[in-house]
Specification:
CATH class of the largest domain: Alpha Beta
Strand order of the largest sheet: 3-2-1-4-5-6-7-8
Largest sheet: 8 strands, mixed
Low-confidence stretches: 1-9
CATH superfamily of the largest domain: NAD(P)-binding Rossmann-like Domain
Radius of gyration: 21 Å
Mean pLDDT: 93
Number of domains: 2
Helix content: 40-55%
CATH architecture of the largest domain: 3-Layer(aba) Sandwich
Number of helices: 12
Structural class: alpha/beta
Number of strands: 8
Order of helices and strands: EHEHEHEHEHEEHEHHHHHH
Shape: elongated
Distance between the termini: 36 Å
CATH topology of the largest domain: Rossmann fold
Length: 276
């Protein structure tokens, strides 16, 4: 059903079970960077309306998850954690040890996937984040036994097409959700609080939002490219007796770092619960 052609990546027939925002972002990244042709990719989603876009760009649409699993050599599980058992049970007869499974779900271990499938197939577990939608994502990846370097590099190339990739041990994968997977929401909440206060002080949101967003972008750039630690960057902005230090002192008084610590631990705990 699906055409195979060319070199290592081109010989790969890539299938996505689930056609939500994250799957869309990954596919768009792969296609826009010409890592694969649209015709080498297939999707299936129970909501047929989600597949209309993929038909328009030349991605093939499978009639069932079972059909997709039968015909694809790499299968990306892009469904919610609570739907994993149903999906895996539905495709298990089509999955062999030659197929590579890739999960983008929070809290789902490689052992769970292999056990539920009843197959010792290779599994790569990933934790991407929503900035993949702008090709600015940060994805963490780990591998089960049986995943070769070539397999890992192929999947790494897919995610690199829409951001950065870091390899971790599986024991770190629940914790990393609090670092990259869920963390965009932390920054959105902080931006919302700043936006609300700007309006309170008489600055219209339409004026404040671009400044706040650009400040976040620029500050992120400083973290990446300046070669300085966060403490050093804070010190660069904070003059003794100045305005920045007054603001920071309020954060220190309310123990912002402890709040962040508790929030991240709560995130990790929930990821562990989802995997049980």
């Amino acid at each position: 059903m699906y055409k195979k052609e060319g070199n290592r990546v081109e010989n790969t027939v890539l299938g996505f079970i689930g056609a939500g925002n994250m799957a869309t972002a990954i596919i768009n990244g792969i296609v826009s960077t010409e890592t694969m042709r649209p015709s080498q990719i297939a999707v299936f989603d129970v909501n047929e309306e989600k597949c209309v876009y993929f038909k328009q760009i030349g991605v093939q649409v499978a009639s069932s998850a079972s059909e997709l699993a039968r015909d694809c050599s790499i299968i990306v599980l892009a469904v919610k954690p609570q739907n994993f058992e149903e999906v895996l049970t539905g495709i298990k007869e089509q999955v062999t040890e030659e197929k590579l499974m890739v999960s983008i779900a929070a809290g789902i271990s490689t052992d769970y996937i292999r056990t539920t499938l009843g197959c010792q197939c290779p599994v790569i577990r990933t934790m991407p984040n929503t900035p993949l939608l702008l090709s600015q994502g940060a994805t963490a990846m780990c591998r089960s036994q049986g995943v070769t370097d070539e397999m890992f590099e192929t999947v790494e190339e897919f995610f690199s097409s829409c951001g950065t990739v870091s390899e971790l041990e599986e024991s770190q994968m629940n914790a990393v959700i609090s670092v990259n997977g869920s963390s965009p929401a932390y920054f959105y909440l902080f931006a919302k609080a700043m936006l609300d206060n700007a309006e309170k002080q008489g600055i219209e949101k339409e004026v404040a939002l671009p400044m706040i967003a650009q400040t976040l972008i620029g500050s992120a750039g400083m973290l990446v490219y300046s070669g300085k630690t966060p403490d050093e960057l804070i010190e660069m902005v904070s003059s003794p007796g100045g305005t920045t230090l007054e603001a920071l002192n309020v954060f220190y008084q309310h123990d912002l770092e402890k709040i962040v610590d508790e929030a991240m631990l709560a995130c990790t705990k929930r990821a562990e619960e989802l995997g049980k």
